[in-house]
TrEMBL record:
Organism in which the protein naturally occurs: Sistotremastrum niveocremeum HHB9708
Name of protein: Protein LST8 homolog
Lineage: superkingdom: Eukaryota
TM annotation in the entry: none
One Gene Ontology CC term in the entry: cytoplasm
GO biological process, one term: TORC2 signaling
Cross-referenced PROSITE patterns: WD_REPEATS_1, WD_REPEATS_2, WD_REPEATS_REGION
Length: 315
């Protein structure tokens, strides 16, 4: 991972604060206080060019200018009627996608500061990720469904329900766009190979499933180099699974140190480090090779529930 000057590490907490950290020293370099109204910080995301920080606070999304000393947002996206549970930037920073417990997925235009499109998911949305081709979204929901949304056709083009009505908590697509992993409420992970649209094979081809945790699963995340899957859980651990070329998953190591639920995780660009956020108020930086905590970020007064890491070059 690069020097602290090139690394953006941000955490959000139920203490209503967003904190920026110096990755290597563990020092909090900046704090954004809660922007006023009641509501919890749910998710955060850093734009690919490192200009903007998107913070999902209850029903709204606040966009901050990272370089600005101001503690007030430069944009505010309103329209969701329940908690915003997911937020992700388009690869060129042109738009932002959000998912919400109100059962909708919304695309916001960052150039015009306006709502561009709304999809009706029909059930509370738990997570949304953007396919690397930037033309599709993959969402998961409380009703147990995983859906593919085609941005050009403005519609849901595929739906999976691997575990019946068991809620799917988190989804992750590999950086090459060929692997989809989903984790459900009961700790089980499902894996699909994503075939090219012109292929004779099904678009989503089931590969395997495995029990990752015996308790509530909160996040699944494929590393940028597609060699590892990180799964986070209520059991206080993060499990690291090695991924073979044919998409078999083998437990590589268990990261132990958090004292309460682990809510979120973010890999470094080179996949050598992992940041996690936990209800024990602490965020941790783990070295993947050793499985050890190399830095701990103390300062939040309540559960740290989301984190974002950007240590690559901005476009």
């Amino acid at each position: 991972m690069p020097s602290s000057q090139e690394v953006l590490l941000v955490t959000g907490s139920y203490d209503h604060e967003i904190r920026f950290w110096e990755a290597w020293s563990g020092i909090c370099s900046r704090t954004l206080p809660h922007p006023g109204e009641s509501g919890q910080v749910n998710r955060i995301a850093i734009s690919p060019d490192k200009r903007f920080l998107a913070v999902a606070i209850h029903k709204k999304v606040h966009i901050f200018d990272i370089a600005s000393p101001l503690t007030t947002p430069i944009m505010l996206f309103e329209g969701h009627t329940h908690n915003v549970t997911s937020v992700s930037f388009h690869s060129e920073g042109k738009w932002l996608v959000t998912g919400s417990e109100d059962g909708t997925i919304r695309i916001w235009d960052l150039r015009t500061n306006s709502l561009h499109r709304t999809y009706d998911n029909g059930a509370p949305v738990n997570d949304v990720c953007i396919h690397p081709n930037q033309g599709e979204l993959i969402s998961c929901d409380q009703a147990g469904s995983i859906k593919q949304w085609d941005l050009s056709e403005n519609t849901c083009t595929f739906e999976l329900a691997p575990g019946g009505d068991v809620p799917i908590r988190s989804v992750s697509v590999s950086s090459d766009g060929f692997c989809l992993v989903a984790g459900n409420h009961r700790g089980k992970c499902y894996v699909w190979k994503i075939n090219d649209e012109g292929s004779q094979l099904p678009r989503f081809q089931a590969v395997t499933k495995f029990q990752a945790h015996d308790r509530y699963l909160t996040r699944v995340l494929i590393s940028p180099d597609i060699k590892y899957l990180a799964t986070c859980s209520a059991d206080t651990t993060i499990k690291i699974w090695s991924i073979s070329p044919n998409y078999t998953f083998k437990l590589d190591k268990v990261l132990r140190g958090h004292q309460r639920w682990v809510w979120d995780a973010a890999f470094s660009a080179d996949s050598a480090y992992l940041v996690t956020a936990s209800s024990d108020h602490v965020a941790r930086l783990w070295e993947m090779a050793s499985g050890e905590t190399v830095r701990q970020y103390n300062g939040h007064h309540k559960a740290a529930v989301c984190c974002a890491l950007h240590d690559g070059a901005g476009y």
